[in-house]
Amino acid sequence: MATIFNFIPKSNQGPLYRQLAQYFRDEIEADRLMTGERLPSIRTLIRDLKISRTTVENAYELLIDEGYVQNLPSRGYLVAAYHPVRQEKASLPGPARESTRTVRYDFSNSYVDMDAFDAALWHRSLNRVLRDPSSLAGYGDPQGEERLREALARYSYEARGVVCSKEQIIVGAGLQPLLLTVLPLLPVRERRIGFEAPGFPQAEEMARLMGWEAVLFDPAEPRGHWPDVLMISPTNPYKGRSLSKQERNNLIVATQLERVYLFEDDYNGEFRYLHRPVPALHSFGNREQILYIGSFSRILLPSLRISYLVLPDKLLPAYHRAAGLFNQTSSTVEQLALADYIEGGHLTRHVKKLRKRYLEKSSLLQASLREVFGSKARIVRFESGLHLHIALQYDGTAEALADKALRQGVRVMPVRSGKKKKAPEFLLSFAGIAGGDILEGVRRLRQSLEE
After folding, report:
1. What is the pLDDT along the chain (451 residues), one digit of tens a residue?
2. Are 143 and 308 in contact (CB under 8 A)?
């Protein structure tokens, strides 16, 4: 078993769990910890380092998510056979080959605030499931575990105003497998799908691989030649704002007139700071034309690969005819643990806590930008989601400036656009970065752009 000899916490290096995770990461990358080697148990680290259980659990959870460590039943935590260097999730086009660069201040959307997540509650839900051996047998229900679908039907109504039954819900490990399952079921005249500008690169590429033409559309222009299928995120993270009232009305009318099928990707719909969260479009439009998609990667953990889709009743017969072709892509154990977590009221309380914490971090990031950049920074949008959409008065493209910042250890997300902008624009996520790092991260961002 590996022994910790030289882990020394530092007061100015961010949360303790991240320091501990970095220690193990460095040891593994330097081959001082070898593949298959057993890491100290949680109890051992608590005793030897005099730190809390939550700190150790969060550190190990982060290492598991990144692929450095695996947790095997009856064997404990082991160094994984494959441990990639952390890299940005490919949600927007950005600088190539980022993974070889050390990131000190990460304003990307690859992480969540682990300090806000009570890992002990999640482990209790997991343990309750694991005490039932029957939950480990088989491949699971292709549609998703019935207990989870029941919990999701209640939660989606209480949190987002989505009215549905458990029979309408399909569970999968993310947006991609859900699209693979559902897109072929749509009775449309032509295989064209529209994405709100500036687009959704991952979903666009997935559609193209399935033989669909991906185009951009403007929800403010209902007279345009909209395709029969549209994908919309009401709190579009690439746009940094929610849909306007007129845009929402345009989409709702289009569904009521049965002009389109609408995929509503409710990405971060729970997080809105200036007003109460707006109910989902599904609660206003023609539900037989709207396919609602929800996920938990930003509410709980990115490593929890559980998303769900609410299918209109009229498409259920076609789905059931094809369901036997698909195995469930999401872990049965995690599905049942999530059902237990929701049933216990923990998810509702967790979201409430996150809203408060993310509002504070959003305000801190705004204040830091004003202090450090002054008139060189303009906040475009900040009312919802986990990002600020900003414009910076610097020469060069957003991609080139983001690459320049990355070389100095600061990761930001360039916003792509089909038209020339007066100033390059970026998304800065405040979700994963520690509150104590925000001001210094903004300072380092300006230094990197001016060097």
Report:
1. 556 657 887 876 778 888 898 898 888 888 788 888 888 988 888 888 888 888 888 888 888 767 788 877 667 888 876 544 443 333 333 443 444 457 788 888 666 666 667 778 888 998 889 888 777 767 788 999 999 999 999 999 988 889 999 999 999 988 888 988 999 999 998 899 998 876 777 788 888 888 899 998 888 887 667 899 999 887 665 555 567 788 889 999 888 888 899 999 887 655 554 445 567 888 888 999 999 999 887 777 767 788 999 999 999 999 999 888 888 888 899 999 999 999 999 998 888 888 888 888 888 999 999 999 999 999 876 655 677 888 999 988 888 999 999 988 898 988 765 455 578 888 888 887 888 899 999 999 999 998 7
2. no
DSSP one-letter string for 246-282: HHHHHHHHHHHTT--EEEEE-TTTT-BSSSSPPPPGG
Cis omega (within 30 of 0) on the bond before 237?
no
Q: Which two tokens stand for residue 300?
A: 């709980």
Q: What is the DSSP letter of 348?
A: H
Q: How far apart are CA 351 and CA 193, in angstroms?
A: 32
Neighbours of 93 (CB within 10 A): 14
Nearest to 268 by CA among 244, 291, 245, 302: 302
Give the Cβ contact number of residue 283 at 10 Å.
Answer: 17
Alpha-carbon span 249 to 263, nearest angstrom: 15
Write the DSSP string, 39-71.
Answer: PPPHHHHHHHHT--HHHHHHHHHHHHHHTSEEE
